[in-house]
Every structure is written in structure tokens, then in C-alpha cells.
Amino acid sequence: MLGRKPAMTEERGRAVALEDGSTAMLTYHPSYLLRLPDAAAQVEARALFVEDLIAVRRRLDRDEQP
Q: Fewest C-beta in 10 Å: which of 28, 31, 43, 48?
């Protein structure tokens, strides 16, 4: 999609401009969250994932305002 492999630790949660003029927000794939072997890491990664989803919702809400 991006034409490159993103550095998730640096780019997660950031908006990325796509070639077609749209914007993508990088986050973890849900299956990654399930595969983390450490329970504490799962909790932390899930919290970051939820933050990302909230940020996307806010951005969509902002973009939908007239």
C-alpha cells in the first residue's frame, strides 16, 4: 500500500499521505496483538491500537464537518 515497509515504532499513529491524495494512518494489525507472547506487551499494544482507532475516528469526524 505504501510502496515501502514502514517503521511501526516511529510511524504508528501518524497520518501518511498516499499517492492518490488520500491519507492512511498506520497501526498494528489486530492479529499482531493476539500473537504477542507477553501479557504485558499485549496490554500495551492493545492500548496503542485503541488510541489509533480513536485518532482515526476523530480525524474522520473533523473531515466530515461542513
A: 31
